[in-house]
Structure formats: C-alpha cells, structure tokens
Amino acid sequence: MSGQNNLFVFVRHPDAEIKLEGNELHYSFHRKKRNHSYDENELNFEFNLQIKIPREMTSELSTINGKEVSITGMFNGASAGNINGNVFVSEVRGPVKAKTINGDVKVEYAEAPSGEADFGTINGSIEVIAPKNLSALVTFKSLRGELYTDFEQIKHVSNRKKRNTDGMKRFSIDVSDAIQFGEGGPELRFELLNGNAYIKKIKS
Known about the structure:
There is one protein chain. Helix content is 0%, strand content 52%. It is an all-beta fold. The termini are far apart.
C-alpha cells in the first residue's frame, strides 16, 4: 500500500483492520470470538518478513511478539520497535529510534552519529557500538541500572559518581545530567527500567 512518498508493508488477515489516511497507516488487530469462545481448531502461524529497500530511504519497522526486529545499512536513519522481542540496528547512519519491551536493544553505527537517537527498553539491556571518534551528548535514565563505557574522552559532570569496574567506567547519573563524548554533538537518549546500558568502541 502506498502513500505520498511512503510505502507501507504489513500482513493482511481476517482479524486485521487497516486504514490509510494520508501518510499514516492505522493497523489494528481484533481477534473475533466465535460462539463466545475461541475456536481450538484455528491454525496458528508465523510470518518472517525480509524487505530490501534503497539505503537512502528511511525505514520504520515494528512488531508484537515477533521475536526480533532487525534493520541493516540505512544511511538516512532508522526506527525499530518491538514488544516481547529484541531490536537490532546495524551499519546505520543518521537519526535512530530503537525501543522494545521485554527485550534487548543493540545498535551498531557505521560512522559517528550525525542525528539524535532514542534507545529504550523496560526489561533488558541497551548496547551501542560506535566509532572511536564518537562525539555526542548522552543522557541516561534507569531505575535499576547503570551506564558503562570504554570511551576515554568524556567530560565529567560535577554530581556524577564514577567507579572503575573491569576496565570499564561505571556512571550513576541524575535524570537531568548529561555526559559529553568527544567534542559533543547530537543527543543520544537512553531510558531503561531494569537493565544496564553500554556504549562501546568498535573493535578494529
């Protein structure tokens, strides 16, 4: 289904309600009851979608209970969302949004981030791998987690607590605090509930 400068890909099935309004796709799932109960003889199946698009486009993918959402090689940014599954974004440039519930998030940058990013999970960890010339402003929020990094060029925040653990620096940061990596740059926002975040150098 196509909108203006947009291409929408989705699974059509009897219980799906699909509506396209301008450049917005509204997709909802309503499983119908038969005789006030579910039919035990109904077939259950799983779709695995693999889509190839030009690198210069932007992509937005999401699923529910669909194992993993994976995006690779997008030059102008990517958005990936999941519920009860992992999110993996690799060889990305530009803005990134990667969030899940009950899963891990892993993002590998092909070059130093040139756009803002939002990373989030409720029950899981977040791992961001970036080039050694990373320049960004990082904010971090976690109820029961901490931020770890092996980058060296970091500007300290006065009310930040820092300890060294196995060669990795560990930070406890207030919600309003930020850490500057390198010369600073786009803002990378980390938000977790039960889990740690990691910002690591690409291994050469």
